Structure formats: C-alpha cells, structure tokens
C-alpha cells in the first residue's frame, strides 16, 4: 500500500432495473449502492493505495450493505456515522431504453445529510496525501458543507493535496448557488475535475482549452476536463495534455466520471506524471462503462493491461 486518500460524502442504496423498458409490476431489479466519493475510494484501493471514506448512513440494511462492501474493498470507514434516527437514502434507477437511464432520488432528510464536523478527524486528514472533495457533499446540508470546509482547512494547513470534482447535481441546488460555493472550493484546490457544462458554472463557455486555462487562473495547479467520448484534457504548469478515450463496448455509463477521477488520483499517489495519471484515468473510465453498476467494474492494478495491452503501472 503506497499512499493514502481521504474523501467524504454520501452513499445511497440503489434499486436498479436490469432490463430496458418502463417500470412495471414484475420488473426485474437488483440491489446495489452508489456514491461518487465512495466509488473513488474503492477505485483507489483497488489500485493498491490506502483510502478512507467518511460519511453518514442509517442503522438499516442499506447502511450495513454500504459499510460492509467498503470494508471488503479495503476502504477505511472508521470515521463514519451510523444514524439510528434517519434512514439511508435511496435511488431508483430505470433503464428506460437500452441507452437511456433515468434516476429518481429519495435522499431528502436522509442519514447522509447528517454528515457533520464531528466525523472529521483532523489527524487523519493531516496525515493523508490527498483529500478528495466533490460538489455533491456541500449541497447536502449546512452541516455537510461545514464538514467540507473543516476538512479543506485542515488539508490546506497541513500541505495535503486537495482534489475537487465539480460533480454538479441540479436536483440538489441551483446553478447560481452551486457556482458561489464551488468558486470558494476551486480557489483552494490543487486539482480540479469538471465536465464542460460543469466548468461553465465558473468560467465563460468556450473551447476546452480556453475553459481549462480560465479555471487554472482561479488557483488550481492542475485542471482536468472530462470530455466523454472525446477523452480528456489536462492543464498543468501551462502545458495542455490530451488523453484519448479507450474504445470499449459501453454497457452502463453511470460512474464513468468517478472511475476516471479514481484512476487519476491513483496516478498522483503513484508519484507519476500527469500523462501517467491521464492514461490510468482513461483506463479506469473504460473499465467502468464496460460493466453494470457504479463501481463494480473498477479495475485492480493487475488488470490494467487488459484493455490496451500496455503496461501503465508506472
């Protein structure tokens, strides 16, 4: 185990349709869980690094499932809150057509929104190499937002690399609310990830190159734009670095962005170059879309050459 990452956020149970079509009595479903930050923690762990996930779950079957799976994946959940009063959140995922997924969340007032400063272990964060945040967590509640800023303050004071995935969720807050809060986080982050639409929350719309430069001007030393089928673009020390997407048969696009982030941050923990991180990120994203579920397809390090035949362990 060669490096450590701490992240904090929400995880919800997922009831997902296994076949295309509208939901109807008798539809076949499978039980799972999802969470952007939990996916990153699992991805980093599978690639050989120590990771910790900090969150709040209900004292229910979903909460048990989440924590048991994360432990099984080698993720430290020792700072997680188990809430006896509120239930864990749920997501209903409908595969309306073969290539269109529709999600409905039941998360308002859930245990996940009770994440608070009490769960933040300053010593844990100060000893980490990377603190990973997303734009989801501060939108959950005032207490979750306070937890994010407490963790961020600790990381900055301790010289820990701060990673931020914009990860805008319009169901949680408006674009104007998100922009005001995310601007504060971007200005203090070292690495920022965004899709083009997410970047447009903070900078004028333009080419990917122009938007990467504009985001970098706000403070981060590394800006990584996720461009879907067009790959990704990173801006680091004034250099623009492109990464092509890896061609695979897509089965489920959900979770690809989080898998990409997991690969990139594992590359950072490897101590490799930005190009190494970009290649590892693209590989993890390709694995993710090739398998049903948010995190199930994340690769182990021994599998990295399966899609390309290349050695990207370094």
Your description of this structure?
This protein has 314 residues and is an alpha/beta fold. The chain has one domain (4-300): Ribokinase (UDP-N-acetylmuramoyl-L-alanine:D-glutamate ligase, 3-Layer(aba) Sandwich). Helices cover 34% and strands 24% of the residues. Helix 1 packs across helix 9 (256-270) and helix 9 packs antiparallel against helix 10.
Summarize the biggest pleated sheet. Answer: 9 strands, mixed
Strand sequence of the main sheet, in spatial order?
A: 6-4-1-10-11-12-13-14-15
Roughly how many Å is the radius of gyration? 18 Å
Write down the overall geometry.
globular
Helix content: 25-40%
CATH architecture: 3-Layer(aba) Sandwich
Q: Quick one: CATH superfamily?
A: Ribokinase
| Low confidence ranges | none
Number of domains: 1
What is the CATH C level class, in words? Alpha Beta
Q: SSE string, helix = H, strand = E?
A: EEEHEEHEEEEHEHHEHEHHEEEHH
Q: Quote the distance from N terminus to C terminus.
A: 15 Å
Strand content: 15-25%
Kindly report the CATH topology.
Answer: UDP-N-acetylmuramoyl-L-alanine:D-glutamate ligase
Q: Count of helices?
A: 10
Brief sketch in words of this structure:
The protein has 10 helices and 15 strands. The protein has helices at residues 36-46, 61-72, 122-126, 137-140, 142-158, 175-188, 196-199, 208-216, 256-270, 274-289, and strands spanning 4-8, 12-17, 29-34, 50-54, 56-58, 75-76, 81-83, 90-97, 100-106, 130-134, 161-165, 191-195, 222-226, 232-236, 239-243.
């Amino acid at each position: 185990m060669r490096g450590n990452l701490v992240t904090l956020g929400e995880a919800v149970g997922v009831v997902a349709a296994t076949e295309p079509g509208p939901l109807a009595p008798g539809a076949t479903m499978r039980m799972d869980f999802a969470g952007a930050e939990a996916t990153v923690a699992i991805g980093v762990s599978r690639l050989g690094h120590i990771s910790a996930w900090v969150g709040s779950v209900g004292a229910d079957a979903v909460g048990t499932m989440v924590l048991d799976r994360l432990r099984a994946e080698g993720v430290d959940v020792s700072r997680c809150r188990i809430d006896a009063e509120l239930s864990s959140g749920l997501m209903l995922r409908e595969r309306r057509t073969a290539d269109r997924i529709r999600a409905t969340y039941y998360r308002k007032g859930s245990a996940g929104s009770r994440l608070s400063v009490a769960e933040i272990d300053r010593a844990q964060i100060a000893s980490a190499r990377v603190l990973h945040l997303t734009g989801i967590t501060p939108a959950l509640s005032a207490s979750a937002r306070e937890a994010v800023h407490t963790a961020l303050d600790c990381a900055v004071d301790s010289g820990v690399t701060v990673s931020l995935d914009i990860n805008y969720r319009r169901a949680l807050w408006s674009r104007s609310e998100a922009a005001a809060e995310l601007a504060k986080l971007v200005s203090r982050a070292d690495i920022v990830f965004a899709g083009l639409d997410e970047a447009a929350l903070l900078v004028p719309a333009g080419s990917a190159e122009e938007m990467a430069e504009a985001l970098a001007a706000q403070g981060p030393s590394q800006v990584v734009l996720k461009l879907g089928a067009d790959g990704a673009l990173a801006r680091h020390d004034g250099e623009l670095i492109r990464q092509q997407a890896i061609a695979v048969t897509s089965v489920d696009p959900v979770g690809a962005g989080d898998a990409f982030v997991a690969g990139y941050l594992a590359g950072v923990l490897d101590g490799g170059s930005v190009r190494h991180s970009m290649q590892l990120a693209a590989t993890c994203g390709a694995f993710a879309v090739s398998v049903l579920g948010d995190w199930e397809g994340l690769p182990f390090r021994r599998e990295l050459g399966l899609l390309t035949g290349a050695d990207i362990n370094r």
